[in-house]
Amino acid sequence: VQENVLQRVLQLPVVSSTCETLQRTYTSTKEAHPLMASVCEVYEWGVQGAGALAMWGMEPVVRRLEPQIAVANNLACRGLDHLEEKIPALQYPVDK
Length: 96
Fold this sequence. Notes:
This protein is mainly α. It is 82% helix and 0% strand.
């Protein structure tokens, strides 16, 4: 199974803890402000629809570009290996 650079980045403690903090803030803001919650729900629905449409439209292009995407992914994974080696702070949550 080939590594996916995006999954690796999202698994870095500094990134995952930042995403968790943003998610908690977003959720608590929606809970505290009902009007904001309704606006956010409309936005979320729109983003999901646009994302699905984009994926459907991009599928043929992605299939054709799979070899190039695999090469770019491998290069990005090697670059991430180097960053993780040189910047140990990436292995710690934001609060540390």
